[in-house]
Amino acid sequence: MLTIALPKGALLKDSITYFQRVGLNFAALLEPGNRQLQVLSQDGRARALLVRAQDVPVYVQYGQAQLGIVGYDVLREKNPHVAKLADLGFGQCRLSVAVKASSPYRSARDLPPHCRVASKFVRCADAFFQQLDLPVDIVPLYGSVELGPITGMAEAIVDLVSTGRTLKENGLVELEQIFSSTAYLIAHPRSYRLNLNGLGNYVPQLIGAIA
Amino acid sequence: MVYQPACGARDILPLDVARQRWLEQRLERVFQSWGYQEIITPTIETLATLTAGGTVHPETVIQVQGNSDEPLGLRPELTASIARAAVTRMAGRQLPQRLYYKTNVFRRTTVAELGNQQEFFQAGVELLGATGLAADAEILWLVQECLGALAVEGAYLLVGDAHLTQQLLSPFPAELQKTVRQCLANLDRVSLQALPAPWRDRALALFDLRGTPKEVGERLAQWSDVAGVVDRFGELQQLLDLVAESLAITLDLSLVQSFDYYTGIIFEVLIPTETELRLVAQGGRYDQLLSIYHPDGATVPGIGFVFNVEALLQAIAIPPAALLAPRSQWLVVPRTTSALAAALHHAQTLRLDGSTRVELALLDLTPEQIRAYARDRQIPYIAWIESDAPPQIEALSDGATYLQIQSV
Predict the structure, then answer these.
(1) Which pTM was predicted?
(2) Does the CB of B116 have a partner CB in chain A at under 8 Å?
(3) Which residues of B touch A84 (CB under 8 A)?
């Protein structure tokens, strides 16, 4: 049976709406109080797995899910072996460098060499500063990254920004955008090549259903 | 201190060895029946040899310290070594050369994949010095025969053709060819969509060139103006027609690699299990590789494939290890210390036929403990030896197991 990995959090609602356009209804995942981690589509033709966004490409890479929806940011950070079939356009955000509003820095290049940069996106952050030729210490965090500069643990952060509200409310300003991100439709490469689980039927429909 | 295997290395205990050997012997019999001869190449090669072909990156090789200044590494695959040997020590021999191997290979894992396996077993063949339909057909038939010998059902054969794909890429501007090829290899449709018109639509059409050979042939009609495409597809179709229907064939013209290694057909064998699609074998034609190793750069065509033994073991049904593991048929027990010489002689007599497995009881146990040991080890017969009396033979009741073992 076709199995689809869906990300918990910001992309979930739009992902479910998107699959509804090709007749796969996983709305059960949105019901308040839902605790199920896998549900069948209303017509029983497909199954959805509810996983953390970072884990979507893992299930797809190993083939337990043949399709998945995940942000480009996660693909950039984890570089998984998955087929990138379409940019779905929703879930827009950007990975940016931010500092305390009160800091003197006005561009990422202004940051002092060997300063600390806190991030959940350690690979992307590292690659960005490598390319600037600016040596920095990347401090991996798992959440509330904004606290890095506030507490003085780090000079800057590299984090996802969608509206910029969280940054503003925590007294941070965005210095530079590293890349912008949207949701991608991804597939297990070999299942896609072999057209298993009806992928050859669903994928063109899904690509045609992009708003 | 507890001594453990190195991270990513593992011990293969006797029962698992029995399963692995069962599988390797079946593959080996097929290889031999097609005239292939075993070759053993060194575990350690110079890094230069390993990486010359372009597919192996130095960072994936476990490098070792030798006594020369030249960097050395543990082989991550066998084709480079065989290519080196074929054009140097074996140079001048009658072609084609049919070679096979069954051995271990090593791959360095990165920190992110900590604990991933580093040592693998492979069994494969290389057919050197022959090109064209017949040689390609021999290799695909051989793959099929191997799967048949392992009673594999429901395997998929995914076939691409580096030559044909290169022809399809030839109308693209030179600076786009590499990008398109990389996108095809990585199935990155999103990046293709960012290409300028009219190349974008052309690349997206190329991305979708997969399916049954017939479907792909129909879709290729719009490419018939590209030089060589019609002829090459005709050859490919002829080849795939020669492969009997036991394999479900998917032709996938985006099955390429981002670098030039394969020059003709490329293929993968996949077996679906309940939870996963396992890649059990892969191979292809590499007509330029040997020239890299040849002292004069002469071209010798080659084609080969390799079975990934671990993946295959996980994907197929194998008789239970307990039935495959070699068991002793006799336990010879000296009743006293003075009977030891007689016991050693008797055991040797039993072994005379060359196939009977006989073990000597070494521990000082009571007769009941000895019987319990024999039952535990599934040894059907015990010979009790006294120094100056004929041996007493005892058959343990569950002799049925013995017969079962014999029939495997």
Answers:
(1) 0.89
(2) no
(3) 186-191
